[in-house]
Amino acid sequence: MSINSLSTSATALHAAMRAAAPALDAASGPRQGPGFSDRVSEALESVNAQQQRASQAARDYEAGHTNDLVSVMVEQQVSSLGFEMTKQVRNRALTAYRDIMNMPV
Hints:
The chain is 83% helix and 0% strand.
């Protein structure tokens, strides 16, 4: 699974939340601060940026621009952890969505 497929899932989730936002805003009053969908988008952008930094660090090491293998490995590990966290958040959000949709009315 790649960040692109996660981004596509997040985009669909983001669109669904924006469609429901007017009803939520009307019920709870004026919104203060960034919403959930904004925070999810920021988190995905952050994970994507970290993956790009890790890829660039690996390319720099392979090209001989740097000899610091430790920093390359740290960048790769941080990128991997960020991706796994994003995947787990997506899985939990989808599970919660399914649970809500399966509730009897």
